[in-house]
Amino acid sequence: MNRERAETFLRLLAEAEFREPARPPLPAPPGRLPRVMMSVALTRAAWALTAAGALDPETAQAVLADTDLALAARHRPEPPEAGMISSAGPGRAAGSASPGRAGGPIGAGRLARATFPARTGWRTPRADVSAPLAPAAPQGGPDRYVPIGRLVRFHDETISAEFGLMSYAHTASGARLIAAWHARDPLSSGRRGPPPVDAFTVTDDRGNRYALLFDTKGRPEPTCDLSLRPDPPSGIRWLDITAPGEQAVRVDLDRLADFPAPEVSDTDFSAGEHLLNRIAERLLTLAPEFPAQLATMAPVSLTSLTAGLGVAIAALEAAEVLSPLSPVPGRLATLCASLGVRDHGITAAPAPDLPEPWLSMLSHYHRRKPDTAPAGDGFAAVAAALPELDGIRLVLLGLHNCDGDTWMNALTLGSWVDRPVNHGPLEATFPLSIWVRDSTGRWHVARSTGWHREPGETSFTMRLTPPLTRSCTWIEVRATGPSAEVRATVPLCWAYP
Q1: Which domain range does residue 148 map to?
Q2: Which residues, including other chains, have CB under 8 Å from residue 166's CB and lie 6 or more apart?
């Protein structure tokens, strides 16, 4: 990695902006300066260098901000004639913005640097627990993850609901049941809000009672956390969950996850190759949004992701995080051609050999028919803690099918949780590459969404593309980082609503 060459490449690219003919400014409201956009190539190169760790965000931000100011200066309005008084007031040019106010001469296209906001979903009121409360869990104890696979139903005059309990997780942030839920009005076909879980009764093997707290944590609607309040002891063996008017459902917390130990192996990917592989995965997840184009091999419009890729690859090579002999740019060019994506700017010759997961997804898209039946609704109990990978501990906490999509719930712990977020064409997504191979041999790529950060951990959901069918009896999860790869085979035991 050569940070000096990375910065030099970006500054030379910025200087080239001024040697090109001046682009017309964007329309501006009255009283504001016109705005000039930087080229996609410059912003994409800055993002790629920071995402690969070859350039610190502060330096990239400074280069882009200076370029923004210089481009805006090209279109600065002429000062009023001598003796004329500007309507903007003395000492200020007409149409200029006040210092520090939005809409000034700074153009768009900066490298955004922010952290994910903690997004919390709807919560039910905390219930009053009349029975003896459970003692607080000991601090600093080992985390606990248990697969469940039980269904809890609730019915009354206005709502019919069910919770598919997928797993139980107890970490420093507390204990919760990860569930897929459905709630409907028996008198109509529409969905209703979540059932009143504060009316449920929860008792452990020691006679302690708990309240349930419903929280989506920003994830897709069918998924929720049912947090236990107060925090239970670490050694409880089971929980009895009783909905009003229903029989108690016993949740066995002594159940062990039955799957082979995960395998860890080294990878020979550079930071640049890892970044390009993640861009390829993003292309494969976007492809289903254009079924008509895929069926006819018509061009697909994915310029928000592919524009400036050629310059980004050149920047990675200049920073020495991508070898000029790497086969990945050629594979990415072949993938773009297979998906009908144009104007990507990749100059590498298309490579004839694509990775097996890419070929599996391409063959799925090209043989897809419009009337293909969607995957049936259901959920599977999963609880698998993977070894630490590049400062990240990934925990899988159940998966479920809903409305033709497959979602996998996960939790991350480790030093990555507190890192600043690098926004860009990958939407500031998870830094690991996640693939899933099912028992039929087909591959699925995981796209992370629905992030919720808490102290020391992050909950999120991954959408699998294409979705899993309920005939799958096991999956192999492959998590890959720049330095290593983890493979874990997890059995699936489906339950249906």
Answers
A1: 144-252
A2: 147, 148, 149, 178, 179, 180, 379, 380, 381, 382, 397, 398, 399, 400, 409
